[in-house]
Amino acid sequence: xxxxxxxxxxxxxxxxxxxxxxxxxxxxxxxxxxxxxxxxxxxxxxxxxxxxxxxxxxxxxxxxxxxxxxxxxxxxxxxxxxxxxxxxxxxxxxxxxxxxxxxxxxxxxxxxxxxxxxxxxxxxxxxxxxxxxxxxxxxxxxxxxxxxxxxxxxxxxxxxxxxxxxxxxxxxxxxxxxxxxxxxxxxxxxxxxxxxxxxxxxxxxxxxxxxxxxxxxxxxxxxxxxxxxxxxxxxxxxxxxxxxxxxxxxxxxxxxxxxxxxxxxxxxxxxxxxxxxxxxxxx
Amino acid sequence: xxxxxxxxxxxxxxxxxxxxxxxxxxxxxxxxxxxxxxxxxxxxxxxxxxxxxxxxxxxxxxxxxxxxxxxxxxxxxxxxxxxxxxxxxxxxxxxxxxxxxxxxxxxxxxxxxxxxxxxxxxxxxxxxxxxxxxxxxxxxxxxxxxxxxxxxxxxxxxxxxxxxxxxxxxxxxxxxxxxxxxxxxxxxxxxxxxxxxxxxxxxxxxxxxxxxxxxxxxxxxxxxxxxxxxxxxxxxxxxxxxxxxxxxxxxxxxxxxxxxxxxxxxxxxxxxxxxxxxxxxxxxxxxxxxxxxxxxxxxxxxxxxxxxxxxxxxxxxxxxxxxxxxxxxxxxxxxxxxxxxxxxxxxxxxxxxxxxxxxxxxxxxxxxxxxxxxxxxxxxxxxxxxxxxxxxxxxxxxxxxxxxxxxxxxxxxxxxxxxxxxxxxxxxxxxxxxxxxxxxxxxxxxxxxxxxxxxxxxxxxxxxxxxxxxxxxxxxxxxxxxx
Lengths: 283, 483
Prior knowledge:
The complex is a heterodimer of chains A (283) and B (483). Chain A is of the alpha/beta class and 283 residues long. Chain A has helices at residues 58-72, 88-93, 109-118, 138-143, 169-178, 195-211, 247-252, 262-268, 273-282; strands spanning 3-10, 13-27, 32-38, 42-47, 50-54, 78-83, 101-105, 131-134, 149-155, 179-188, 214-221, 229-236.
């Protein structure tokens, strides 16, 4: 018997992982949630059939979405995380002693419960006293926030389904308002490779450019996401992601990472020509 | 044949049966189930093209219904609590015109509020009926026209005892209702028919705790836009009739102007939507109201905006309010409604129903999702943060009482000439000028053009309102009576 998980990356491209067995399947008010175990990637989580994370490569995504803004901001104390019910971003954030509070806003409580039970690799720091979890729509939560966060991390799903509000201009504008004068917002920025993903990436970039004075994009290699070539958005009111970056200072913190390091930080903002062109088209 | 109930949809069922028969078409439409126009078929879908068929025995004929359309109309009448109901494929415009053409011949008087939809005044041109306008009460803060006050209707009846009918638009676009029951009773005491433009009130018939419906109030006719809150396809409507209306004569009136090739896409959409609302309308509209109420409270919390509701009720010209409507007053943030309307679309990819000088209306229905409501609220908050300014120098006047000097028909057909807008004051207009939506005329044929109206037209144009009705597409010139 062979059991395979398959996701269509485009109508003409499929990506499959051989499944050893299924650990969980259920439907929440918002989406279908599945957890599988596999020989190659360990356990993995899918929402509505789309790959969210695998135990083997989640460190790349979570380190890159967290440490880049945390290393640029000189003194990040109050952090807001939107989405990220798997706990991976929270795990990375709790490694900073300077952080005073982490507000996590996840629309789907069941995702958090399922991850706590089946994905302890990521969902392992929810009990840190600095972490406060709110189960509500991020678009609604942030509407009421003004001038109160140093860093906002938007760990959204895709720009369709329950997470689509997190790719809108009204949401980015609300993030701007919720940040302090030197605040930074980082977001999951889709892929530049396949046409449909690239179009979503451009739409998202255009809206961020219109909302923040500094808006840059950086990349990472994430093997289980479509094309493997993935982008993050770095939007900021004051700090430039490389000019205002002090790698030595970050190294002194002694946070042990597997992907992120100061040289890679700077390098991640150097983009391929075709990506630069896609971004320029909407700037 | 088994007895029909609201679980049936006779036209829909007949179309499904017809599709299975795989009849070879040597009749119109010439696209022959889509095969003759593949680009259109790919765009609309094969299922859609397959039922775009012509009237024939198994599918009945809207002009003279004897089988499945007759059954479907009977079920619709039952669902709406009417004596009879007709399926309309020319929009509610055609329903409004038919009920006026039924009630009035040339020279007959009809009492109506001035803030009617253009379709009602068009019917005056078609029939030669003479409108007796009751100026609606106005809320000067919001700048919107309200319902008809009972005392004004009484006065109009005393002054025009020979009027044949009273027309009421209920609810208005903004959700405002008149005292339908008292006005209906009053009209009937004086032997006048009661015609209700209920374009925005389909849900009143199926939801709970909504204002009274025309049929429940004993009105004689009502035009209902099923395609607005009822979920059917654009252009499909119902004409409802009370027991004192001769439905067979009404059908002849409708057939004067309605197409003889009624679209089965429209007919089946009416049939299916009626079934859906009859079976599940209570729940559907409870959800709609819940979303509208939630949005209203969140929007009012933003500050500046005023999403109004039942607190406006004053026992007369705002006798009741339709809480499913999300009408928002925008002037306190320093932006005209039309500016907020444009910003929502251009900046936030959100299309709302309309914006006028002081208000916007977001249409809420069961098709909305909670997360889209959150987007709308956040976008309004962002518009206030990014574009809000002082509200000084904002024009608030919305409703200007017209000076009627000729009947619409006489003015429309009279010799006329074209004048630049700024030279038109003092002349009598021979055409319509209106913002669309909502399609309520600023000027109608036969009305005096005043400097106040010209100023209003100029301001509305400058703010970006979509102006329609005039022969000159750019509304820089007006046609006036050549006298």
